[in-house]
């Protein structure tokens, strides 16, 4: 990678150091750390190797993509539910963040909580048409209140401008395109005013290539009913939520053939979506670290990041938190999954309930602190 476009209010280029990504599995067994509070952490098998190894080619690569497409499909997974007594169910289960709320807040005492939120499937429901993934007014107001008490960021695979058009809160940090397009608040943030001017776009040199592939993919999906291509500026999304499962293999084959001409791009998989992005070593985990550094918390032991997300791409951020030994990841899912997250919430409505409790906990804590200060002054 060359000629990175980095504009930061002060010198913080150290965050750009590339970190080697594990290629053997999505969930490598090395450097695993147990959660600091109750909740088991499992050792993952190599079954994810088939889903993540993008170095293979030809028929095997296409088959791997299709297997991953099926694995990421809620419909496919629900068709083979695990019973509550199934050993895999118990092994993959994460404690509810709502049930463990007191333990989470106790672990954060004396530290600055920083919130990171995925958008689709976390703040808004998963819908057939990605252009209709609107968050509710109640959720928007909840996130607005959250940002009053904690530095808060939206970290999404969507184009930054697109996710901003959904959220419409200028006081937040936004990291679009899986963290490849980061911008600080345009107004209203009381945290580290210097960070408001942050702009980080490490994949700018790929824009002409991405636009070229986008136009080619528009032609590809014309022959696949229900398929849709979304241009997220620094990455592309091929949505197949509305595609007949029998046609997934054909779609994967066409995408694969096209990308053989673009070795600088790679494919990852989300919930009924193929994500096409540059091969640079940058992801949501790197975006989390960059934002913490921009806020002045890079080497601060008194920071407590909480990341909430539902997608496979959020695992990069969950993994970073576990390796840092700070804060927690919360997976949004109705079914048990392999994850680096320590806790779970089932759906956006539970996310909103958790965020509201967090806001109320901080409000009451601050009120009690002010009262103690006033009482101490009176006693003097």
Write the layout of secondary structure elements.
Layout: E1 5-7, H1 49-52, H2 58-71, H3 74-78, H4 87-92, H5 101-108, E2 112-117, H6 137-149, E3 152-155, H7 160-167, E4 173-176, E5 181-183, E6 199-201, H8 207-221, E7 228-231, E8 236-239, H9 248-259, E9 265-270, E10 273-278, H10 284-294, E11 303-309, H11 315-324, E12 328-332, E13 343-345, H12 348-379
Parallel strand pairs: 2-3, 2-11, 3-4, 11-12, 12-13
Antiparallel strand pairs: 1-6, 4-5, 5-6, 7-8, 8-10, 9-10
Number of strands: 13
Instruction: Give the strand content.
Output: 15-25%
**Main sheet overview:** 9 strands, mixed
| Fraction in helix | 25-40%
Low-confidence stretches: 1-57, 75-90
SSE pattern, N- to C-terminal: EHHHHHEHEHEEEHEEHEEHEHEEH
Q: Could you give the order of strands across the largest sheet?
A: 1-6-5-4-3-2-11-12-13
Secondary structure class reads alpha/beta
- Termini separation: 62 Å
Shape type: elongated
Q: Mind telling me the C-alpha Rg? A: 21 Å
Q: Specify the number of helices.
A: 12
- Give the overall pLDDT as a whole number: 80
Which descriptors apply to this entry?
4-stranded antiparallel β-sheet, 380 residues, 13 strands, elongated, alpha/beta, disordered N terminus
Structural commentary:
With 380 residues, the protein is of the alpha/beta class. It is built from 12 helices and 13 strands. It has helices spanning 49-52, 58-71, 74-78, 87-92, 101-108, 137-149, 160-167, 207-221, 248-259, 284-294, 315-324, 348-379, and strands spanning 5-7, 112-117, 152-155, 173-176, 181-183, 199-201, 228-231, 236-239, 265-270, 273-278, 303-309, 328-332, 343-345. It has a 9-stranded mixed sheet, sandwiched between helices. Strand 11 (303-309), helix 11 and strand 12 form a beta-alpha-beta unit. Helix 8 (207-221) packs antiparallel against helix 9 (248-259). The longest helix has 32 residues, at 348-379. It is elongated.
